[in-house]
Amino acid sequence: MRLDPRSAMRILFLMGLIFLTIPACCEAVDPLWTMDFPDAGLHPGIVGRIAISPDNRFLVSSNPDKTELFVVSTNGSLMWSYVPERSAGGWSPWISGITISPDSSRIGISVMVPGCCRGVVTNTTSNRVILFDRQGNLLWNYSTNEPPGTIAISGNGEDTFVGYHTRSLICLDRSGALRWKYKSDSPITDIAVSPDGNYLLATGGNVEGQYTNDAYYLAKDGRLIWKRQVRGINNPGISPDGQDLIVSGYPAQNTFSFSTDGRVRWEHSLFSDIGRVLSLTTNGRYVLAGSEDKIQLLDHHGEQLWNYSVSAPVYSVSLSENGETIAAGTATGIVVFDGSGNLLKEYRLNQTVCPVMVSRDGTSVAALSDRLLFFPVREGKPDRTLSENNVSAGNNTTDLPLMPTTPTLPGFTGVFCITVLMGIVTFMVSGKRKGRT
């Protein structure tokens, strides 16, 4: 069969369109770099921690079982690492919290010794809070005795807040001295601090509702302003202007917005929108949730902005300060969206990614699977001038291999576009054949 010149030109045009559409449709992306690190396997099932510095020049991560800390520049150079000392009884502690000061000059971690079995904690002098400068030099080391579950440095950088599993909250000053201690009704597992450093919103796990209260709003001097019961594994957020206080809990599946005087502005059921929630975060301006097959974004009025169907369970979600970059770690990889819910990039790993972290300015994403991954996702890429040559190493520095990136397969959107265009070409060719017979 011979095609007439016009039909041949059409087919050539469509074939060219296919190849031009591939990058536009799929936006499959390789990480800028990946890093393997040793996983001691001492705490099976524990999920690691990760944070990106506010100046976007380095990130801080634990390995998957939280037994070692790594500080890596955004060009992939290892700056320093730290291994917490074993307890007197020979227990290997894990890193329960990571925080970076707003000026990126200091890094704080909370270290907790596990108890006799999973879910059990214990009081010991090996439980502690440690503060380093960004070069890895020890600034202070505070023995908490009680097991710390979370840590946060205030917006003005003057105070460090630590939440305990044993139902209390403390504040340490810049030198590591105790300012005050507040006895809570529930364990404290997460802390959000207002941008000006004057207030904090602390929450705790209360899945069964056994605790009278599990959300606490305090002044920086430790004075309680109000407390409420939300129920769930709660996530707190304070908006940039400090006026919107949001607490979201799962598996209770409800999100509450509070005024600064404790009044409930609105309540929203996540379960009715997307089913069982697997991951959740809020920055006080937006609420981002992931379920078995969906990702959803709410605004600070509790209104749904969008939801997006995915093919794998969503185990971790993160968003930039302005909500314009959103990332999700799933059972098969990473997906990145803009603030309107448009898919920007996709990276397929075929293994679970948890946690995932978006930088404050939304230009980069870091994630943890069996290795550490780092992606630039928007214009204004991170400063890549930082290297091992101009950063002094701290204690326990280890040479770890940077792994070459692996080519990724096109995502579902890309495959769909390609299939449709190929179908059009096939249809035109078969139509011409039928017309000639």
TrEMBL record:
InterPro entries: PQQ_rpt_dom (IPR002372), Quino_amine_DH_bsu (IPR011044), Quinoprotein_ADH-like_sf (IPR011047), WD40/YVTN_repeat-like_dom_sf (IPR015943), WD40_rpt (IPR001680). Residues 127-270 form the Pyrrolo-quinoline quinone repeat domain. Signal peptide: none annotated. Keywords: Membrane, Transmembrane, Transmembrane helix. Coiled coil: none annotated. The chain crosses the membrane at residues 409-429. This is WD40 repeat-containing protein.
